[in-house]
Amino acid sequence: MSNKKKDDLQKDTIDNTKEAPLTTNQGLPISEDEFSLKAGERGPTLMEDFHLREKVMHFDHERIPERIVHARGFGVHGEFEVYESLEKYTKAKFLTEPGKKTPVFTRFSTVAGNRGSMDIPRDVRGFATKFYTDEGNFDLVANNMPVFFMQDAIKFPDFVHAVKPEPHNEMPQAASAHNTFWDWVSQNTESAHMVMWLMSDRAIPRSFSMMEGFGVHAFRLVNAEGKSHFVKFHWKPKLGTHSVLWDEAQMINGKNTDFNRAQIWQNIEDGIPVEFELGLQVIPEEDEFKMDFDILDPTKLWPEEDVPVQIVGKLTLNENVDNYFAETEQVAFNPGHVVPGIDFSNDPLLQGRLFSYTDTQLIRLGGPNFHQLPINRPVCPFSNNQREGYGQVSIHKGQTAYHKNSMNNNQPEPLSAEKGGYEHYHEKVDGRKVQARSDSFTDHFSQAKMFLNSMSDVELQHIYDAISFELGKCDMEIREIAISDLLNHIDRDMTEYVADKVGVEMPPEVEESTYDKSSPALSMKNTTFALDTRTVAVMIMPDIAEETLKETKSKLEEKGLQPSFIADKMYKVGDLQIDETFDTVHSVLFDSVIALKGKDQLPKAAVENLEIAFKHKKAIGYGSLSGNIFEPLSFDENDKGVSNIEENFNDFLNDVASHRIWER
Ligand code: HDE
Q1: Confidence (pTM)
Q2: pLDDT class for 625, splitting at 50, 70, 90?
Q3: Domains in the chain, ordered, with CATH?
Q4: Whose CA is nearest to atom 11 of ligand 1?
C-alpha cells in the first residue's frame, strides 16, 4: 500500500536500481571508477583527479553524530485513523475526523546503547511517532514504560552520564548493570519506580510489536470551546505485551544482534503490518488534585483502574524505509511539535524536553534547516520568514522576509485561532521564581511498591533476579548503598532476597513502603495472547518425508505462525528448499520448537536446541516418530508444554499462544 508521506518522499528518491550512467555530483559521466589518476601505472596520484577527491571527501563525511540517547533505532511508515471524533476533548483535526488516514513514521529504539549495539539489552525502548497531519506534524515521542527516572529535566544529563558506559573505560555497552547507574539511582530515589520497571521483563520485549507505548507526561487536550483536559497517551499492541527471559536475551544478543528489527522488517516485507491502538487517559482540569499523587509528576502513572484507558484509534505500520540513513537516522522528533488542540502541562520534565530536542537536531543534522529533510517535511504547506542557513534547499521568492511588512501585503500572515492558528492554552500561572521540588513530588516509593504489588509470582522473581544480576556486577560499596538507600525503602522481601544474593548485610531498620494498592493492568499476565507472528523452529532429520514437511508447514502457516525448517545442512526436500542449519540459527531465536525425527538419532545440535527451548519455557512439539525422541533429553512427553503435533496439535497451538509455560 502507499501513503501520502511515502508518495511525498518519491520526489526526493533516486532509484539506483534503474539503468543510469555513473556521474560525479556535478552530473559528469565517469569513464573510470576503479583506478585513480596517476603519473604512470606505478606513479603518484595526481591532484587533478576531481572524481577521486569528491568520492573520498563524501565518504569521509558520511557519519553524523549518533543520538546521545536512543541511538539505535528502527523506523517504519504507516498510517493512523481515529475511531470516533474526539471533539469533546480536542480540536486536533486528525483526532476529530474518523475515516481520515494520517500518514505516520514510527521509530522504535533502545536508549543507552550506541547505534551498533544489540537489539535486546535490558533497557527502556523508545516509541516515537510523527503524525504528518494537515495542520502540521505532531510528534508523540513515547517510551515503552509509563514513568521516568527523574522529575526535573535538569537531572537528565546526570542520569544519562550515569547509565551510559563509564567515561574512563567506555564499559559496559548498553547496560545498566554497573557502578555509576546504581550509584545515581541510589542517590536520586525519585528513580525508584522506574528502576522497578527497568528491572522487570518490560525491559526485554519480545518484539517491537509486543510492547506498550506511553507518552509518560501529562499533556493537555483543548477543544474548540477552549476547555482543557489533562491526558496521558498510550499505545496498546494488538498482539499483547510479551517479553523474553533475561538468559534468553543474552543468548539472542550473541546469535542475532538484529533480532527485533529483523523480524519486523521481514513481516512488513511479507505484508504483515504491526498494529497498535491509541489509548487516552483523561482527567478534567477541575480534577487535577483528586489523585493521591501529583499528576504532573512523571515518576507516577495514573492507575488504569482509576482512570480507564479509552481506546480511540489505530496505528498500522506497514511500509519499510527505502533508505535507513535518509529516513530512520535523519528523522527529527520533538515533543514540542504539536497541532492545535494539543498542549503541554507544567510537568518539569516535559518542559525541559521542549528545549532539548531542537538543540540535538541542530548538532546532529548540521543546521537549522533539518525540517526540510524529506522525512521531516510536513505534508501540508509551510511558509514563514526564516531564510538561509546550512543546507537550505528551498528557494524563497520575493523581496520581504519579515513580519510585519507593507510590501507583500503582510504575507505570510498569522492565522487567528478560529481559523486554525495555534494558540497556547491560557493557563493562569502565579508563583514565585524558585528552584525547588514541590512537596507533592516527594513520595518516591509508593508507586514503586504498587508496581511490585501488581506483579505475578513469575514477574516478581524476574525482578529480584534482575536486580541481583545487576548489583552483582557492581562494587561492594555500590551494592550496599543500593540496598540501604533504594531497595530497602521499597520492599523488604525484595531487599532481603537481593542482599543475600549479593553478599550484603541487611540494613537493621525496616523502612519499606506500606503502600498496599495494586494495579492489575501492570501485570503482563493480564495482556492479550495471540498466535500471529509467533515463530517456530522446525528441526528435521535427513530422512524426513516430503509430505510430512509440507503438511506441517501449511498447518502452522494457516494459524498465523512462521515456521523455519532447520537441518544439519542446506538441501531440498522435494521442491522445498531447507535454508537454515544448526550452524546458522538456534532455537533461542524462536518462540517454539518442533522436532520431526525420522529413523536417525537426534543430532547433538538438535538435543542442545531442545534443551535450551525447554529451559526457556517454550512450547515444544514433536511428531513423525520412529523410536524414542526423548531418549537423549532431560524431559519427556509428560512435561508441561510438550505435545505430539500429530495427535494434539491444538495443545501445541495453545502453548505457543500462551507465550511461555510458566508452570514448568
Ligand atoms: Fe528524550 N531525547 N529526553 N525522552 N527521547 C532524545 O532527541 C531528552 C525523555 C525519547 O526515535 C534526544 O533526537 C531530555 C522522556 C525518545 O529519534 C534528546 C529528557 C521520554 C527519543 C532527548 C528526555 C523520552 C528521545 C536524543 C529529559 C519518554 C528517540 C536524540 C528532560 C516520553 C526519538 C534526539 C527518536 C530522544 C532529550 C526524557 C523519549 C537528546 C532532555 C521522559 C523516544 O534530545
Answers
A1: 0.97
A2: low
A3: 73-372 (2.40.180.10), 448-525 (1.20.1370.20), 529-657 (3.40.50.880)
A4: 107
